[in-house]
Amino acid sequence: MKVGIISDSHDNKEKIIEAVKVFNKENVGYVIHAGDIISPFTYREFKNLTAPMFVIYGNNDGEKFGLQKVFNRITEPPAEISIDNRNFLVLHAPRGLEAFKSSGIYDYIVYGHTHIIEVSMGETTVINPGEACGWITGRYTVAVLDLETGKVEIVDI
Predict the structure, then answer these.
(1) Domain 2-156 classified CATH 3.40.50.150?
(2) What does residue 96 show for φ and ψ, rounded to 5 degrees?
């Protein structure tokens, strides 16, 4: 199974559409959004995903009631989720990252907030897909994780 990973989309509808296309083309079985969707109206773009999506709130997600209304699986970070018998921890900001990583509990830790790509392989693989919005780095990216091989691909959208 493949997992699509996105963070910090910040209402960039055009890039959300591109991310959805990538995830659908890659036939991901699940999508994780590591926060900072911002507005509920972007649900119109995300609803075209062919896979279920798990979302956590980011520091800029102020309209929590509206987001909760349209996204079925949205929660405060840190949040644990099991996908295909793998344990994931999803954060927005990397607070406590090293402690979570060294705990040995998680197969994968996904985070966002920094807008900087990170893929750190190990007993616990850490993934920051960068930013889908492109506001900080000028690069629009998502990640695709292949659970069979453990390979993480950063995809420009």
Answers:
(1) no
(2) 80, 10
The label of the residue with tokens 């209402």 reads 11
For the chain, give every domain's residue range. Answer: 2-156
The sheet with strand 2-6 has its strands ordered as: 74-75, 53-56, 30-33, 2-6, 141-146, 152-156
Residue 156 DSSP SS3: strand
- pTM for this one? 0.96
Label residue 83 left, alpha or beta by phi (over 0 means left) and psi (-120 to 50 means alpha): beta
β-bridge pairing 2-6 and 141-146? antiparallel
pLDDT, tens digit, 9 for 90 and up, residues 25-75: 999 999 999 999 999 999 999 999 999 999 999 999 989 999 999 998 899
Q: Which residues, 6+ apart, have CB-to-CB distance to 15 below 8 Å?
A: 9, 132, 133, 134, 140, 157
> Strand pairing of 152-156 and 141-146?
antiparallel
CB 155 within 8 A of CB 25: no
